[in-house]
Amino acid sequence: MFRYALRLHRGGMIGYGAALALTAVATGATYAKLAGITAASRAAFAGNFTSLAGQFSALMPAPHGLDTLAGYLLWKGWGALPILVAVWAVLAATGAARGDEDRRLVDAWLAAGTPRRGVVGARIAAFGCAAAVSAAALAAGSLLGSGGPGGGLAAGGLAGQTLAFWLLTVACFALCYLVAQLPASTRAAQAAAGGLLLALYLLEVGARTDPALHAVAWLSPFKWYDATDALAPGGRLDVAGVILSAALIAAAGLLSALAFQRRDVGGALWPATGSRARARREAAPSRALGWPVARLLRRERGAILMWIVIIGLVSVFMVAFAHTVVADLSAVTSPLTGVPGLQAFFTTAGQGAYVSFIAVFWCGVTQLLLAGLAAQLVSAWASDDTGGILVAALSRPVSRGGVVLERAAAAAVALVAAAAVAGLAAALTAAADGASLPLGRLVGATALLVPFGLTFAAAGAAAGGRWPRAAAGVLGAFAFLSFFYSELRLLMGWPGWVDNFSVFRLYGSPLSAPPYWTGLWVMLAIVAAGFALAVWALRGRDVA
């Protein structure tokens, strides 16, 4: 069973491992371009970015030793990656705890004589091995990006940082696996697990700037990871964080086994009883279940609402501190000349530093979140394919092409709602700060977010038509890589053809420049081709 469970994590292991490794390689290669090669320029770079680090606390922890490649790699590379592995942990854990039950795999394992505690142990151990491979890929990418052994990274520090990163990844999985035992569906499990990790992450983010939260933040595994800075010069492996991470994995595994022993396969840990259960049975079905598109949105309403709330909050946050960041950059770098590469980063737009900052960071992060929403929808479609819902839908009967078109329309509605909330939140926050964004360009930038998100949904639908289980994980890793390399080209001044295959490049920068019409037509072509391939793939294979 362990070998089969490891196979189920193969797609995520390859996709996320490649994303981690390439991120480390690119981050290491960027350092000399940004900080220069002299001790004086690197000292100036470290001073400037250390002063500004608080502005980026939502994405990365406090930096250590930015005048060295190792310190920069820890801050910019390893510090931003917990978000990525948290997404992987949510998808993998809920798929292991609930998706496999929907596919009747758990029934087969139990019927073969595997004890329930053995199922739990095998799933956590299998993911631990997959996470170890991904963490090793991150370490190898760090070595490659620094020029190989002897390029500025201490072997002991790299090993300690890799251990802390691996423990964080497995701890997130174990925690999500435990939470997934509570509800009775994969969708509810994903919403609950994602909400919990988001709350724990925001707790650590708050502690980075508010000392009053420092003690409380030790409840978060993200804090335990941030406490280790072994990769930086003079850093150390935080023993308390390692012990707490290992203890959380063991405790979550034990509690998951106990919860799995108590509940029915496919059922909730505490099912509704008495009058509540009777009321559910006797309640009239929702009218939305009879309407195309609406029935898909109703099934995913919890996850879609969660993503919309996150996108709205992030939009408020990014726009709210834009004034502070731009003012600090201008004051510290006089203006922007103390950090090589940043001047081009903020002056490519031609709309002023404030609009340029929002165009780069708000649009970029919102795009990444919309790609995450698309991955969530792709994951739900894959769950329908493997859990019997698609079989029931096709028995109505409904054509397979009609199923794909209904999914495309549901994705479009969800993305329109999320993009509208993002644009409205950005406009209202800017107005509250006494600033203004160009209204016409803001509307255009918001509207273009919809075909951008549909591009990822179409690509995921095409992949899911052939490989349903692996589609969401690989799509999430591709979104992260596509986002990172679009940013990397701007920082390093590479020619545009380097990231012509990035969907973020196709979106352009409509908030600070005229719309990139060629990119729009290419995105629409990808959407049409992706869903057409999804129809072809679904027609060419047996369901489930």
Molecular structure report:
With 544 residues, this protein is mainly α. The protein has 2 domains: 1-22 and 81-268; 364-544, no CATH class. 74% of the residues lie in helices and 0% in strands. It is built from 23 helices and no strands.
Nutshell version of this structure?
With 544 residues, the protein is mostly helical. The chain contains 23 helices and no strands.
Ends apart, CA distance between termini: 20 Å
Largest sheet: none
**Helix coverage percent:** over 70%
Order of helices and strands: HHHHHHHHHHHHHHHHHHHHHHH
Query: What percentage of amino acids are in beta strands?
Result: under 5%
- Give a count of the beta strands, DSSP E runs of length 2 or more: 0
Mean pLDDT: 81
Radius of gyration: 23 Å
Low-confidence stretches: 332-341
> Based on helices, strands and strand pairing, what is the structural class?
mainly alpha
Number of helices: 23
Spatial shape? globular
* Total count of domains: 2
Which helices and strands, and how do they pair?
Blueprint: H1 2-8, H2 10-35, H3 39-52, H4 69-77, H5 82-102, H6 105-111, H7 116-145, H8 155-179, H9 186-209, H10 221-226, H11 239-262, H12 274-282, H13 294-299, H14 301-320, H15 322-333, H16 342-347, H17 353-387, H18 389-394, H19 400-432, H20 439-466, H21 468-492, H22 503-507, H23 517-539
